[in-house]
Amino acid sequence: MPKINAATVAEHRAQQRAALIQAAVDVLVEQGAAAVTPAAVGARAGLARSSFYQYFPSAPALLAAIVEEAFTAADTATTQALAGLHEPAERLEAFVRTELHLAARGAHRPAKALMQADLPPECLARVHELHHRHHAPLQAAITALTGEADAPELTGQLVGGTIQAAMTAVEHGADPTHVADRALTLLHHGLTTRTSQ
After folding, report:
1. Contacts of 38 (CB under 8 A, 6+ apart)
2. CA angle at residue 130 from 43 to 88, to 5 degrees?
3. Could you tell me which SUPFAM superfamilies the record lists for this protein (predicted)?
4. What is the DSSP letter of 95?
5. By CB neighbour count within 10 A (0-12 exposed, 13-18 middle, 19+ buried), where does 111 fall?
6. d(CA 118, CA 1)
7. CATH code (residue 92)
8. CA nearest 36: which of 123, 130, 146, 162?
9. What is the pTM of this model?
10. Residue 25 structural domain
């Protein structure tokens, strides 16, 4: 029986699976989706290629797992940040600050790489589905703030662009609290001005 480095076999398997996913994320971010192969991921994780297949039947299956896990942590953080907040402006602020603190921890790296990757169609469709679901609270806050019930998409895209620029600044070393303060000043002004017109 292979040596395990955990209290139970189940914990050992969970650790091995997590190591493979983390190795795959590193390969994905550095080299793209095409480089995420059983051999490359196994080598990066320090496991034999044969061990890969004990956890994932194929590279696309591993990419699918990355897709799911890339959004789970962000969704959980956002849900916690928005709990108990009902005012649209408060929800907008909580969403933005959470996104930027996640960016500071590198949590968005997998999702960003996946959005840019040449993924299998079913994986790409799932990425877009999860991305849309993750941003639903933001879109709802924008709609409530602007009253644009009929056509909020353009405003949502512009707000999203501001948040993306803020995330990029944070990923390059800027302080997430300072960047959030500046971004929210712009967003609150823009959305409030739009409402009053």
Report:
1. 49, 52, 53, 56, 58, 59
2. 135
3. Homeodomain-like
4. H
5. buried
6. 39
7. 1.10.357.10
8. 123
9. 0.79
10. 1-56
